[in-house]
Amino acid sequence: MEGLVWLLAVFIGYLFGSLPTGYIAGRIKGLDLRKVGSGNIGATNAIRNLGVVIGIVVLLVDVLKGLIPCIVFPGIIMKLFPDGYVPQSDYLSLTLGVAAILGHNFSCWLGFKGGKGVATTAGVVGGLALIPFVICFVSWVLTLLITRYVSVASIIAAIVLPLATATWPSDLDNRFGILFWVFFVLGVMAILKHVSNIQKLMNGSEHRLFDKKVLNNIKEES
User: Fold this and answer.
1) How do residues 182-202 score in pLDDT, each as one tens digit?
2) pTM for the full predicted model
3) pLDDT tens, 135-178?
4) Radius of gyration of the chain from Cα atoms?
5) Alpha helices, DSSP H only, in the chain?
6) How far apart are CA 185 and CA 152, in angstroms?
7) For 9, what's the count of Cα atoms within 13 Å in the CB-facing half-sphere?
8) Burial status of residue 202 (CB atoms within 10 A of its CB: 0-12, 13-18, 19 or more)
9) Staple 97 to which of 70, 87, 148, 200, CB 3.0 to 4.6 Å?
10) 86: phi > 0 → left, psi -120 to 50 → alpha, else beta; which?
């Protein structure tokens, strides 16, 4: 029975995370985000091609795709199964969250392709380890303000994540326990998802967030 609980958690988390928010928003506006701009379905490309308001909505929904499985779904699953058949809720939350990130990055609705998972990972981290989340968020914001590159800010946050988790361990485990290693792997996965951005940074073709196109979108929406 416990194995069924784990399978259900993976299935629900993955399916919830696989909702391609940016792709859906683009289709509503008559665009396929995979074919414009960077080709990514995340919030940054949505801001550049669909407008700031829609881009922010995409960002928030992608964050919730990681947060909701961690804080809401465990309680629902625990009510579905008798006592003694449900794993420790913290580990259930972690499983649901990781599955949601995989769903976002490798969506079954998009041929097992998807976004880079930064926003959804942020939601998972926020639901499991608040202090590391705050540290990563501050590092992301500061890097973005200094460089104006979302990709650089995301890479820095991915590097900071396991370091912050090791420094401020949560109740889930000890300093270098399962949460540290899961966040380490998630950080590496996020960096690997940004390889194309790193190449663009090296050849000078990476777009800054607040370039002319984004500023024009802001003017049109104001």
Assistant:
1) 999 999 999 999 999 999 999
2) 0.91
3) 999 999 999 999 999 999 999 999 999 999 988 866 666 556 88
4) 18
5) 2-17, 21-28, 43-50, 52-71, 73-80, 89-105, 118-128, 130-147, 150-167, 178-192, 195-203, 212-221
6) 18
7) 29
8) exposed
9) 70
10) beta
- Cβ atoms 29, 54 nearer than 8 A: yes
First to last CA, the chain: 55
Q: What is the DSSP letter of 34?
A: G
Q: Where are the domains of the chain?
A: 2-221
For residue 161, give every residue at least 6 positions away whose Cβ sits within 8 Å of its Cβ, in sequence order, or none: 121, 125, 132, 136, 183, 184, 186, 187
Half-sphere exposure of 42 (CA within 13 A, CB side): 23
Q: Locate 86 and state its tokens.
A: 């449900």
